[in-house]
Amino acid sequence: MDEILTRFFGDLAGRIGGPLSFRLILQPAVAIYLAIRAGVLDAHNGRPPYFWTILSDRADRSELLNEGWKAVAKVFVLAVLIDVVYQLWVYRWWYPVESLVVAFVLACLPYLLVRGLANRIARARQHVHLR
Q: Is 80 exceeded by the pLDDT of residue 71?
């Protein structure tokens, strides 16, 4: 088990300077753009911050997760595909769990973190304009 974890974290660290490293900027940037767009729309519709609502509101959780997945699914799938190409190119092998972790970190995590922040900023701007 220790060997697997050592290889896993070593492989993840190796992606930073390896081939196709542009994706480490491009994919989170696309996810952040989608999150900002959705967060601003949430603010205009009077909806609470996304991630906080997922954590605190059981009634709306599945609907919000589905909505978020629809928004970020293409970026996630692209992140998986590019990581598969990277792994086949560099390691001549594919490690599916690594691809899923990388895709989550590059696509889903930025979306989850930024959508609620964008909502809060947009709400604050609305309050300033209303005064």
A: yes
102: closest CA among 83, 86, 88? 83
As a whole number of angstroms, the distance between CA 23 and CA 110 comes to 14
**CA 70 – CA 35 distance, rounded (Å):** 12
- Going from the C-alpha of 70 to that of each of 34, 65, 100, 108, 125, the distances in angstroms are 11, 9, 17, 11, 27
59 is written with which tokens? 């009634």
Residues 113-124 have pLDDT tens digits of 999 999 999 999
| pLDDT tens digits, one per residue of 92-108 | 999 999 999 999 999 99
pTM of this structure: 0.78
Please name the residues in contact with 53: beta carbons below 8 A apart, sequence gap of 6 or more: 47, 60, 61, 64
